[in-house]
From TrEMBL:
Binding site for Fe cation: H58, H60, H103, E105
Cofactor: Fe cation
Cofactor remark: Binds 1 Fe cation per subunit.
Residue stretches making up the Quercetin 2,3-dioxygenase C-terminal cupin domain: 158-237
Source organism: Lutibacter profundi
Source domain of life: Bacteria
Alphabetic keyword roster: Iron, Metal-binding
Family: Belongs to the pirin family.
Pfam families: Pirin (PF02678), Pirin_C_2 (PF17954)
GO terms assigned for molecular function: metal ion binding
Annotated Pirin N-terminal domain residues: 10-121
Presence of keyword Metal-binding: yes
Protein name: Pirin
Length: 241
């Protein structure tokens, strides 16, 4: 097993007043040659956007973009429909930028901030037709069991996950205190980037607390132990792409 530890306070940061961001990987004006990507995972941003603010219209292409609100609500508009769509905590959004599109993301509230994860995954197909989707995921369905949020569009497994153009899987679990869970990777060709949303866990003899992360590769199974009630995000991706 190979592991890469990333502590919460080691992430890149940006403070634009209306936007406070933490970058797990090089992004915008933050560049660290040792933190460019983890396999096909290119971006994991932990953003806090103030009330009424957001990202104006801008372009994307050939990237799979996933948004997970943790607190508050977002509104989205893109060149595929040109109408505002609300995305609330408990929902997940995917956007396959493909051959190119324009979009805007704004805080849907004029009084409360929003906190969200923005994830970019390099696709395994370029210049595809752009597509958008979102879905709601029950909190109770991930109580001490894995809840798959996002998986490959080529995956024929029947579940409620949203689909992207990459052999990847994004999932969450909420663990009770003193609970153990075994995570099984699809193959040793994959790696998984594990982010502790809240709580305290142990993985591979490493204690991880809120917003700490660990990259695990060159194994097909590892154990996670929750020392406290914990929420955990898993991003499993090809390490070669």
């Amino acid at each position: 097993m190979k592991k890469t530890i990333q502590r919460a306070n080691e992430r890149g940061t940006a403070n634009h007043g209306w936007l406070k961001a933490n970058f797990s990987f090089s992004f915008a004006n933050y560049y660290n040659p040792e933190k460019v990507n983890f396999g096909a995972l290119r971006v994991l941003n932990d953003d806090v956007i103030e009330a009424g603010m957001g990202f104006g219209t801008h372009p994307h292409n050939n990237m799979e973009i996933i948004t997970i609100p943790l607190e508050g609500a977002l509104k989205h508009k893109d060149s595929m429909s040109d109408k505002w769509i609300t995305l609330e905590t408990g929902e997940v959004q995917i956007m396959s930028a493909g051959s190119g599109l324009m979009h805007s993301e704004m805080n849907n509230s004029t009084t409360e901030h929003i906190n969200l994860f923005q994830i970019w995954i390099v696709p395994n197909k370029n210049e595809v037709k752009p597509r958008y989707d979102q879905g709601k995921f029950s909190i109770s369905a991930r109580n001490n069991k894995l809840q798959v949020l996002v998986s490959s569009i080529d995956d024929n497994v029947a579940n409620e996950s949203l689909k992207i153009h990459q052999d990847a899987q994004i999932s969450r679990i909420d663990l009770s205190e003193n609970t153990e869970f075994e995570y099984e990777l699809a193959s040793e060709e994959k790696g998984v980037f594990v982010m502790v949303i809240n709580g305290e866990v142990e993985i591979a003899s490493e204690k991880l607390t809120k917003r700490d992360a660990i990259g695990i590769e060159q194994t097909n199974l590892f154990k996670i132990t929750a020392n406290k009630k914990s929420e955990v995000l898993f991003i499993e991706i090809p390490m070669r792409f």
